[in-house]
Amino acid sequence: MGHVTGRVGIAVALLLAASYLLQMDDSLARPARPVQAATVATTQVDPILTVRAGSGDREYFVSRHAIVPFGSEALGLPILMYHYVRPLPSIRTDYLGYRLSVAPGDFEAQMDLLHAQGYHPVNFNQVRGYFAGTAALPSKPVVITLDDGYRDLYTAAYPVLRAHGFTAVAYIVPNFVGQPAYVTQSQILEMDRDGIEIASHTMSHANLAKMSYGAAMYELGQSKRWLEQLVGHPVLDFAYPSGQFTQQTVVAVQQAGYGTAVTEQISTPHTMADRYRWGRVRVGGGESLQDFAAGLGPAMPFVTISNVEVKPIKYPSPPG
Question: What does the pLDDT look like over 265-287, one tens digit per residue?
């Protein structure tokens, strides 16, 4: 008995020492802040310690997860705005198309940069969860949005996002779906099932700022219902076509049942109070990688949580 107790005591001491070193490393990385660790999904790593003491054999696993601490009323969250991902048209003959386009190679380089610098793309369901206090955000969160549902959303952007393991938000115009230059219903479903959030961009890309309240409600409501019937779950997020909106438009978006709306105004701080006027960071044609990185703004402070999990060792049953 004394031998077993001694081994367990050594194991506990080693475990505490390992935990202390992890905490020391965490505290050097970022100032400690109170967090709700129970809401953090952790990733299990190899066992750092195995204790064998007769029938009470155990393995100790330590996992670490960097998060934005709860409690902030404002998020410094870059919401990136893309339209086309395609070869750039001529800046002389199609200036607007040029500004709305990002070359496929540039898009891939931008996603590489996000990955290399430790950014974690999230969708608006996760952002709402953070503000509600039900789910933590990963460190250096960013939202990638793509407007209009052009065909290259599926053929050029989606493969790069998938290769990086990134989520994104795709604002779809139902009346455009299936037309030659746009995504199809089956492509929308595939992206939705693979973690791309499908969101609304009105039924016909209408300028809501110039419409009556009733007409705006039709565009908003019909688009939401059409997309929900397609994907089979709520569609809660919206983008104003061409960034045009009025106070009446904002009220209509709320009444139609949306949870957020994004504009084409430039900003990175966001609160729940202004969730129907969230600004974005436009990513335009010919933009250098340095300019892209600068547009992300300063990263929010984060903390690293260390979790210890104890599991019994499962030995194979003896033959026979």
Answer: 999 999 999 999 999 999 998 89
Q: What's the pLDDT tens digit per position in 228-264?
A: 999 999 999 999 999 999 999 999 999 999 999 999 9
Dihedral sign (CA 210, 216, 218, 220): positive
Beta carbons within 10 angstroms of residue 208's beta carbon = 25
Which CATH architecture fits 75-295?
Alpha-Beta Barrel (3.20)
Domain boundaries along the sequence of the chain? 2-68+303-312, 75-295
Global pTM reads: 0.80
Contacts of 239 by beta carbon, 8 Å cutoff, 6+ apart: 145, 147, 171, 199, 200, 201, 261, 262, 263
